[in-house]
Amino acid sequence: MAPAGRDGENTRFPFLATVRSLVTIVVTVLAVSVVVMVIVVVHRPVDMGFQSYGYVLTEKPWWIQHSTTTAWPATAVDYLIVVKALNPSGRGQIHGSINVVRLLDVPNASFAGMVDLGWFKPESGPFDLPPHSKHRYRDWRHIDDQPTLQYLYDKHGHEDAGFTVMVVVDATYRPAHSKKSIDAAYYCWPVTFIRIDATNTPAADNVDCKTAQEMGVELKWEKPPPATST
Predict the structure, then answer these.
(1) 3-state helix, strand and coil shares in percent for the chain, rounded to the nearest 5
(2) What fold characterizes domain 46-222?
């Protein structure tokens, strides 16, 4: 008969073997998780963002004041629009281009009944965005079609304080080391369409632009109604 002491030598602390096994499993799981996280971060797409200047500026009113009691729509309205493409990521360069910039009147915060005030295709061409950089696009444009001028006068005539608009940017971008280009629309709101004195440009914060998914609502707009002859 074997001595009692030696018979229990390997079973005195049986839970230690279980603990060692659990520690090994936990360490293995953590190591695999770290590897997976690194792979996800490395391969996560580098998204381009946009901002708009808080104002769309015009130096002249969108109405012509003939007398204290008589006014009519302006014959043209020039406006300044400023947007910025952003690469907030530090993981790579972005190749981008702005395809179309659109200006919408936003009569109410529910985005119902928005009206297209005009759109244009920038002539600046494509650009590169290194990590943590911005690309600024600034341009003067004008409204000269009669239905839109009539709409501005009927809807916002004599509103010196301005009115709320949305700047929509349709863009295409491709992260560096990627063969796939991404088309995206960015909705910048709220922005104020306002008349200013040429020597007194108001200070304004930049407005972050959101994608349709981030907006959370379906956005639609229509053209101004036909101008009525007077």
Answers:
(1) 25, 40, 35
(2) Immunoglobulin-like (2.60.40)
